[in-house]
Each structure stands twice: as C-alpha cells, then as structure tokens.
Design goal:
Length: 332
Amino acid sequence: MGIQWFPGHMHLTRKAIAERIKNIDVVIELLDARLPGSSANPMLAELTQGKPALKLLNKQDLADPARTALWLAHFNSLPGTQAVALDASVAGAAKTLVAACHALAPSRGGGGAGLAKPMRALVCGIPNVGKSTLINSLVGKRATKTGDEAGVTKQEQRIALADDFYLYDTPGMLWPRIIVAQSGYHLAASGAVGRNAYDDVEVALELLVVLKQHYAALLQARFKLPGTPAEIAALPEEQLLGEIARQRGTLLGKGQPNLQKAAETIIGEFRSATLGRITLETPSAFAQWLAEGKTADAQRQAKKDALPPKRRTRPALLPTRFAERLPARKPR
Ligand code: G4P
C-alpha cells in the first residue's frame, strides 16, 4: 500500500506559498521531531527559492532525544538553515523563534534592531504538526490575526508578533506524491493523514518494523512480551502484532488475535508516547530510503513512458433526446 493524499485545498496552499514567498525573509518549517525526514516538505525548497530556513523540530517531548540531536546537527549543517527543537505548548517558544529568525535575517526587525525593516516569516508544516499550538503560545494576547487584509489571501493569516515582526501562517500541507514508501506510513502513524486514507494494521506493521529494531525494550516493557529484546526484534512483525493482541486480551472468536484492535493500540500509544519517546527516522536511514524511493520512482516513470500513449476517452455525451431514454411514464 502507498499512502497518497492531497486534498484540493492543499493545491491552494501551495499556490499561496508560491505567491507570498517573494516578500518573505525567513521560511519557518515545523517538523514532527518523531519523523523529521518524512514531515519535511520536499516541495518547499523549490517553492521557497533558497530563502533562509528555520526548521523547528516540534513535539520534542515525545521524541527520542538522542535522535533529535542527530537531526539538529543534520539540519544545522545545511546552508542558510538553522534548526531548533521545540515543545510548542511551553512558554518561551516565542523567544527561541524570534532569536533564530533574527540570526537568519540580521538586517530585519524582530530582534530589537530599531530602524530595521520588519521581519516577515512564513510558517509552514504538515497537518497536526502543532502549528496552531505554536502560534497560540507565540501570540498571547497581543496578537492580531488579519486574514482579510489586502494582499493576504484566504489561504494564509498575517499575525503581528510585534510592530516589527510578522508571521504569515499557511494551512497544514502534504504533497501530491510521497516517493519514500516509509514516509506514508510514518505520516499516517503521526496523525498527519486523514483517517480514511490508510489501513491501521498496515500502518501498525510498518511501525513495528522500526520499533522492534530500535525500541524492542520499550515494546517488551509496555506489552509484557515474553523473550529478550533481541528475541522480540527477531519476530516477524505480523507475529509481533498477534502477540501484542494476545497480551492485551483483544481476541476474536476461537482465540484468534484481534489485529485491528492491537493496531489501534500501537498507533495510539505511539502518538501519545505512552510507549516511550520514539523517533522513527535518523538522517542516514532517511537518506537511504530517499535514494531508494527516487530509484523506484524513476523506474516507475520509465515504465510509464514506455507504454503507448493512452487513447483519449471522451466523456459520454448526453443523448440529444434525453427524454427518450427515460422510462415510459405511467398513465395516471
Ligand atoms: P496543527 O495546527 O499543525 O494542525 O496542529 P495543532 O496545533 O492543532 O496540534 C495537533 C496536536 O498536537 C494537538 O493535540 C496539540 O496539543 C499537539 N501538540 C502540538 N505541539 C505539541 C508539542 O510540542 N508536544 C506535544 N506533546 N503535543 C503537541 P490534540 O490531541 O489534537 O489536541 P489537544 O489534546 O491539545 O486538545
């Protein structure tokens, strides 16, 4: 299964970002610290044309701190990029964000620079990554949301953090094609994808691939699984899911494990970090998946290009005498 999900309003968001970008000093991308690779928008670099970038690894309180450090080092090594880990709901987020923007665009306002031109920062991120939470904690009572101002489209909102610091907020956006297979599952596990676009069992199985490899001790402790972490890591994920269902007593008739219920449990406990602080990706693993995804995508495209062009199918025309096609009227 691949997860592809791109509702119409996301096309509008893409357009709004492309229009706004000319007047922006810093592009702030909120990432999910548990899946920093998969939650990063691959279209953003193209859309933002090399503008200074601030990567905020949000929900760091739910993520594995050792892996967060790896991701921060990775992003901070990119040109024109700064990365900060964040828990959007805690006070102090504003100070971190303002300081980082000022470091990226020193000639702009927002850092007490007096006569400098105002700082204009665009905030983007996937659905559910914590954008509203961050903005609410940033703005406090002083904020003014001015979505119906001239030049501010309905797809964005301008928020004045201070007289010399404006945030342009865009709606949560995913992208049309997800070429890293793991990303679809990780996004679904995080809650970024609509509930009807994925299958819980498939997403849970893909989560278990990572969990058994890197967090087997957490699985063992949480679900009271028999065996050592190494033995748990060696189990096929289907068997592991069945074992979790049994340990939780979620059974169908004749003692069969209820895999659906177990899958919902795993996804829910990953989201809330009841399982523990987990990060599904490292920079090096993600780079490898991306390379594999690109190769597979190029092969798919080559196969498609080799097919004879599809004959255009014209939409069926309405019969000229439509009434003739209706059932005969019954005399009254
Ligand atoms: P969005 O605007 O990007 O779509 O996301 P939003 O702020 O609505 O946040 C989505 C969920 O993530 C919310 O939880 C929010 O509380 C939670 N969240 C945001 N930032 C953080 C963070 O840094 N750490 C943690 N632990 N959670 C965060 P919810 O369950 O949907 O709503 P609620 O329980 O807060 O009401």
